[in-house]
Amino acid sequence: MNGSTSSNESNSTASASSFLDPLTNPKYLVRKDIKYNHMSPKERQQLIQECKILSSLKHDNIVNFLKIDFDQKFVYIYMEYCDSGDLSQLIQYYKNYNKQHPNNCKWIPEEIIWRVLVQVTLALWRCHYGESCNNIKTIFNQFDKPDNFLKSMAGENEHIIIHRDIKPGNIFLTNVNNRNYDNLLVKLGDFGLAKTLKSKNHFATTYVGTPYYMSPELLKDDPYSPLSDIWSLGCVLYEMCTLHPPFYNAKNFIDLENRIIQGKYNKLDKQRYSKNLRNIIESCIEVDLTKRFNCCDILNDIQSKIMYKSLQLEKWESTLEVYEKELINIEKKLEKKAQRLDRQS
Fold this sequence. Notes:
Elements: E1 5-11, E2 14-20, E3 26-35, H1 41-56, E4 65-70, E5 74-80, H2 87-100, H3 110-129, H4 149-154, E6 160-162, E7 171-174, E8 185-188, E9 195-197, H5 216-219, H6 227-242, H7 253-262, H8 275-284, H9 295-299, H10 302-344
Antiparallel strand pairs: 1-2, 2-3, 3-5, 4-5, 6-9, 7-8
Helix pairs in contact: 3-6, 3-10, 6-8
């Protein structure tokens, strides 16, 4: 990539590269370095699958896949760099603060939780239905289920992608300034465990994911659908509200498995967060698949629609600011050109 430089950010398998964007400012990339010369055929196939999934997902709330290179030992995957860390770091910040100030605990503000909820749901809409959600005209409009909704839920939509590992560490943050989250932007990433469902016969039954966020159907080794991602999203939102996952107090894996299958967890504090938010979270962490929310159900909540509309307005305002800067730059160039012509005449 022209003008790129590279520096290690965390360990030998990941680094960040910077390059000069001619339209704006230097931007950072994440370069995922994967050693593949010792991989088994199955592992290489999984790597190819991840690249295919990443390259097919283009959405504002999904980490952008940019390019792939390779040499004799490594595959280099270049992705968008999210400059504000991930959701697990935000949760850990509040946990650390409360540990240091037990008599003056702070909790994640509800508006931040709504921002995360809506943006991750928009990313999942793209994954689960194979298309982006339409913009909302007014908060009084209802979102209609996509034409392929029933096929998606039945595993018959060839464009379905189930993430299968939604957790705080895979939800990345940008646009945070000095812990000011008023304009927080969220991007879903790390699709290494994702699976594309091409037909009903391919309905997933593989045991993958992070235990605390696994759905009951996955733990029971039952066929699972996009609703498994919704369960995991509910667990993440619950953790934002309480600073721990819903089934954190399980004594061992067997106990954890039983609690998840039974949907046994402590309900959210009614005094701390609104009924709308609590209702969405409880409807996501719902054992009964016929009652569990889907993306459409989540976005049709009035508070979700208000947040979505607010996010749209912020995006339009940001776009206008970019255009304004470009026009100012063009104007300056024209002025300099006019000055040169004046001096020549």
